[in-house]
Amino acid sequence: MAFKVGLLGLGTVGTGTVEILRDPAQRHPLLQDIVIHKVGVRSIDKPRIVPAELLTTDLESIVSDPEIDIVIEVMGGLEPARSLMLKAIANKKHVVTANKAAIARFGDEIFTAASKAGVYVLLEAAVGGGIPVIEPIKKSLCANRINAVTGIVNGTTNYILTRMQLEGGDFTEILSDAQKLGYAEADPTADVDGMDAADKIAILASLAFGGRIKLPEVYCEGIRNVSAIEIVYAEKLGFVIKLLAIAKRKSSDELEVRVHPTLVPKSHPLASVNDVYNAILIEGDPIGQVMFFGRGAGAGPTASAVVADVLNIAALLKVERATQQSEPPTLDPLLACSHQHYCTIAPMKDLSTRFYARFLTRDDPGVIGKLGTCFGNHEVSLESVVQVGIRDGAAEIVVVTHQVQEGNFREALNQIEQMNAIEKVASVLRVL
Ligand code: HSE
After folding, report:
1. Is the dihedral of CA 175, 180, 184, 189 positive or negative?
2. Distance 298 CA to ligand 1 centre (A)
3. FRET partner for 375 with CA separation of 20 to 30 A, picked from 145, 297, 298, 391?
4. Measured from the CB, is residue 222 less than 6 Å from ligand 1?
5. Model pTM?
């Protein structure tokens, strides 16, 4: 029984996908039933790994081809990826996509259309590249009440932070070196400013907590302001700095969903996830903690996830065809999107977290006391206050708080910034 696929895009991930599909030996036997029917590319003049007769620049012809069962969208970007996926769905084709940006923004529209048309939209490759995390949340962990998903889901920033940690270098110089080495994009904005991670945690939160997520409500802070000084002080205090993407159940009807650089205790399972690796820690009841670790990007790992989704759909189609179920088919409720409402995301001011802050102050008597009093007046309890030395003629004071309300901490910080003795609030980071 053959299942015909049409690929939209033959870049890094598309090429990796074709390589797996054309080399089924010692892989799942169902792979032999997958036939590449058409491949949509921007230009047919370049040498490609598929025969020229499969190539077309007419992407619309793929999503409307009656012979194609599954459309694999690996072209990336928002448009025309969104429109093509919607057209494929309208033509009753199942869709496999690696496109986190399109799903995080248009998931509502895409999944509503897919439910109506009775087709699957699977997206394992959109988060964590080759790491199986979406299907485990949907299926293997479905008996659990998920309480938190905490991930290192961006390889570029993890690579930069790891090198800053190991070499003591500054963000700008390591970013530029990472670009030269091909570990960071020429335009690194989506990675270093946290948007790529925000797309991914929005998708994970939606799956883990069974509701849609409005991307603009996801708090997003990147790593541009993480300096070598913070890495050194974090290290002295027993932490490493990681860009974490966090989705957490705050109450029965409210979530926290956020991305920011975070001081992570060295003993925490995510602290030792280094370089371009990704990891996602899920906390559920009753399973407790379970962590998924692996390569979050690259042709092979991402294609591994794409092809797994293709095989999942092919397996379901095989059963359906064998039993000749009537139209429209009943979708597997664990694999299809089964929620329509939006989750409520709590404002950051209500976040309960610990903070690290570094101040440059006049080296006068009583400055530490004033800081402590101001924090105390705003119900911010301090775990430690240390004058760590003198920098640029100013006293350098590092504060770590207990668990506090972010709103209270920010109000205290506003007052502290007005104090004559304070020259600069040099850094503020959250602590896991
Ligand atoms: N740019 C991403 C990263 C990979 O650096 O992790 C694709 O999601």
Report:
1. positive
2. 8
3. 391
4. no
5. 0.91
